[in-house]
Write a structure and sequence with these properties.
Structural class: mainly alpha
Largest sheet: none
Helix content: 55-70%
Number of strands: 0
Radius of gyration: 16 Å
Length: 166
C-alpha cells in the first residue's frame, strides 16, 4: 500500500468516526456553549473543514481557482486557527451549511488526492505549516487533527446531557 493510500485510509477512518458523532448531535445543540465558554459544535465542525482544506488541498494538492466555490474566504476566516468563537449563531452559517462545507471538502480531498504521486509527499507543503515540513506530514496530521476535534465534540455532547454514542 502506498503512503498516500495509507494516509487517505486514516483520514477516511477519522471521518467515519466524526460522522457517527455528528449524526448524534441534534441541530439545536450545534451552537450551544457550556457555561465554561469553550466552543460550540458548529465551530469545531467548521474548523475541521478549514484544517482539512488547508492541510490537504492547499498544502498537498495546491490551491486551485475553483476552491473559493468549495470553501469561501469568509468561511476560512470564521473557522481558522486564530478565530475567536462567537456564541451568537447569527455570526455563522447554519449548521446544515457548515456540515455541507465539511462534507464537500472531504469529498474533494478523497477525489483529488489519489492523483498526487507518492514521491511528491517527500516535498515541502505548497504553503508553510507551523509543524509539518513535508506533504506527508500534512497528510498524517490531518487525521490526527480531526480526531482531536471530534473528541471535543463528543465532550460537548456529554456536557449537554446526551448519552454516549455507543
Amino acid at each position: 500500500m502506498s503512503r498516500l493510500q495509507d494516509g487517505l485510509d486514516q483520514i477516511a477512518f477519522a471521518r467515519g468516526y466524526t460522522a457517527s458523532i455528528l449524526d448524534a448531535v441534534p441541530d439545536a445543540d450545534w451552537f450551544r456553549m457550556p457555561a465554561e465558554g469553550v466552543t460550540h459544535v458548529a465551530w469545531q465542525v467548521g474548523h475541521i473543514a478549514f484544517a482539512q482544506y488547508r492541510l490537504l488541498l492547499e498544502r498537498v494538492r495546491g490551491v486551485r481557482p475553483d476552491d473559493e466555490a468549495l470553501i469561501s474566504a469568509d468561511f476560512l476566516r470564521a473557522f481558522g486557527r486564530d478565530s475567536v468563537v462567537n456564541p451568537d449563531p447569527a455570526a455563522y452559517p447554519s449548521a446544515a451549511a457548515i456540515r455541507a462545507v465539511f462534507d464537500a471538502v472531504y469529498a474533494k480531498v478523497m477525489a483529488d488526492l489519489p492523483a498526487v504521486p507518492d514521491a511528491a509527499l517527500e516535498g515541502p507543503p505548497e504553503s508553510p505549516h507551523r509543524i509539518c515540513t513535508t506533504k506527508l506530514q500534512c497528510l498524517r496530521w490531518a487525521s490526527h487533527h480531526e480526531t482531536i476535534h471530534v473528541g471535543q465534540i463528543a465532550l460537548l455532547r456529554r456536557l449537554f446531557g446526551r448519552p454516549p454514542v455507543w
